[in-house]
Amino acid sequence: MTAEETRHPAATSRAALSPVVLDALVALGVFAYNLPVQGLTGPVWALLVPVGLCAPYVLRRRHPRAVFATVLAVAVVQQLAGVPLLVADVMLALALYGVARRHLWPWSAGAALLVAGWVVWAVGTRLGEYFLSVFDLVLLLMVVAVAWLTGTLARTRAQYVESLRLRAEQLERSRAVEAEMAAAAERTRIARELHDIVSHSLSAIGLLAEGAARQVDRDPAQAEAAMLKVRDTSREAMQEMRSMLGVLRDTGDAAASPLPGLDALPALVGRARETGLPVTLSVQGEAPPLRSSLQLVVYRVVQEALTNVGKHAGAGLSRVEVTLHHSPDEVAVTVADDGAGPRPDGTGTGHGLVGMRERVTALGGTLRTGARPGGGFQVHATVPTGSAR
């Protein structure tokens, strides 16, 4: 029962009762038209035959096959008992319509043949009586055909309407699933952006603050310079966060403060160098016009790789090489170091190496990470320039 039916049980009962009342009125009208019945052998037949033909019709919507079988059985008894044809015999056609309306053609076709056979039997044995002729026989057979055809068409239309309803419900469910998947993907994208921005900035701030703490007594000027860099890094992180939020809000602020691309790599490497990392940047090949999404992915890969170097490279780190290679078909970036510290395995929160891999594969690229043969760690990503825009 639906919520509407629960709130309005009386209206629901009336709506369900209306067809039954209509069927009862039809049966009552046909029954009344047969009274008084001429030619019956007694008062019992005068009552039982019309009642047997009309009364079951009230249940034809709920039990169409049972109603049809009952009416047909009464009609057969009517013929065997020699009862003349009645107006109530039209209930056979109405019962046939109910079967054709509710059941598939094997049932309805069989029911139509039975009714047609009864008509041939009932009228054929009475030709010449009561002004019955072959024309009447053909006309009654046409009535049987119309009843069957009308019920079949009504069933076909009802099935078509039901299929449309089911298709609409399926489409609605599909849209809901797609919206949920899109929302999940958007949450993942936002989580990756926040991780890249916050993780890199906090890592840089931590390294700068640690250096300032070591220099505060020995070289206050150097410590002050380090703290100023902490301030600048914090401001840059806030600006980048605002740019990302501006894109999410789709406001004009996003255009004024675009997300970082390849042209921001020198500044990124410079900030990493200020934290004490011995980073060098090498660009090979001529850069073609690249869409912003590809440039952002390359930038984030370098950013995350440098953040991991600062966290995990450990003692013995002497160089970090960032190499950007342009070719007509793809952009490749490599971040390699010679540190000896433990490295992330991509597990955990899923926003480190896993986040990099998700970014790269989303644009049809590949990401390879692992230890270098001579020591250290390497991150290598390739992204095709012709992937979907």
UniProtKB/TrEMBL annotation:
It is an enzyme of class 2 (transferase). InterPro entries: DUF7134, HATPase_C_sf, HATPase_dom, His_kinase_dom, Sensor_HK_TwoCompSys, Sig_transdc_His_kin_sub3_dim/P. Its EC number is 2.7.13.3. It catalyses: ATP + protein L-histidine = ADP + protein N-phospho-L-histidine. Keywords: ATP-binding, Kinase, Membrane, Nucleotide-binding, Phosphoprotein, Transferase, Transmembrane, Transmembrane helix, Two-component regulatory system. Gene3D superfamilies: 1.20.5.1930, Histidine kinase-like ATPase, C-terminal domain (3.30.565.10). This is histidine kinase. The chain crosses the membrane at residues 15-34, 40-59, 66-98, 104-123, 130-149. It holds the Pfam family HATPase_c. Residues 298-387 form the Histidine kinase domain. It comes from the Bacteria. Signal peptide: none annotated. One of its GO terms (cellular component) is membrane. It comes from Desertihabitans brevis. GO terms for molecular function: ATP binding; phosphorelay sensor kinase activity; protein dimerization activity.
